Amino acid sequence: MTESYVYAAVRTPFGRFSGALAGVRPDDLAALVVNGVTAKVPALDTKEIDEVVWGNANGAGEDNRNVGRMAVLLAGLPTSVPATTVNRLCGSSLDSVIIASRAIETGDADIVLTGGVESMTRAPWVLPKPERAHPAGDVTAVSTTLGWRLVNEQMPREWTVSLGEANEQLADRFRISRKRQDEFAARSHDLADRAWADGFYDNLVMPVPVDRKGGVLARDEGIRPGSTPEKLAALKPSFRPDGTITAGNASPLSDGASAVLLGSKTAAARIGTEPLARIAGRGVFALDPQAFGFAPVEAANRALKSAGVTWSDISAVELNEAFAVQSLACVDAWGIDPSIVNTKGGAIALGHPLGASGGRLIGTLAHRLEEWGERWGVAAICIGVGQALAVVLENVTGASR
Length: 401
What we know:
This protein has a domain at 4-121 and 251-393: 3-Layer(aba) Sandwich (Peroxisomal Thiolase, Chain A, domain 1), CATH 3.40.47.10. It contains eleven helices and 14 strands. The chain has helices at residues 26-39, 67-75, 92-105, 163-174, 178-197, 229-232, 268-271, 296-307, 324-334, 347-350, 357-372, and strands spanning 4-11, 15-16, 51-55, 83-86, 111-119, 125-126, 142-143, 208-209, 216-217, 254-264, 277-286, 314-319, 376-383, 387-395. Strands 1, 2, 3, 4, 5, 10, 11, 12, 13 and 14 form a ten-stranded mixed beta sheet that branches. It has a two-stranded antiparallel sheet with strand order 6-7. Strand 8 (208-209) and strand 9 (216-217) form a beta hairpin. The radius of gyration is 20 Å and the shape is globular.
């Protein structure tokens, strides 16, 4: 078997719900980053791309079922480039990286473009079809933005609690205080703002035109510089009157897209550049649906075992911050130094467009490892309905220290 590598990554800025990207269709966002990542490797003839594997958690509206194929067509890639769309909810674009890496390693493909997109703002309402013709009663439109919808009555009630209530249960289980959650959230905003100021995201994030007058969104819209635990402590709980989770210590509804180009080692000549990182290990795990926030613990442990390394080897962790409480629960369970986690900010500040977040994690992690010359890193994400994914990256750009 061969090995698979990350060659390039790019993403849009992540926009707030009903914010600057509200007027941009998800298929257009996807096409933008397809062109953005291929622009980073101008020597690559795009007809050489064997497959596009795309992540998307909705698919019910302008995503048009197979938004990966829509992105290929809208981006102007050759129509001979095939594409599929993967839906593993929050983990969709990380799953696309995993699927592509397996295809490369088994020899089924040599160059695969992966990524994901979500416009949570533009997610449609849906109506269930009536079981008989001409019903006389009212019908309720159901939002497809986030969470359970049209739930099967056979599902146990404890499985189908809201995402927020599920994480309040984690706070109870692990005795994670509101204070710790607010401190974690303030850190996310501070580090994200600092990373932008230091230029870390300059080559990772491409601006998005947002109107016909030349306006663009060039920076993540959810970052709140100057956030402090004291300011966040003033916010009211969102899910329980006496709860710990607020709009300030949970990731927001977001819009955005990400793309990651993968290839074999021998594909470097056709891509026109050397790779950034090797896909060294993969892990997937599932548990009770309401405990989804804790699932990254075992997913990452399995990815480390797959890579043949341990937590003592890891220098950088990109953990999607769905909620501060679940991120803290995972970091505590791993027993790692919290200072290596999300050093460029996390989803609480940057945003969490469901289908795009996994690609963001991989792109950020690869560039973090390159920046510091460190060898091993982990990207992990929790997934609604009780799942998680993780990937171990090995920096192959050389160590600076």
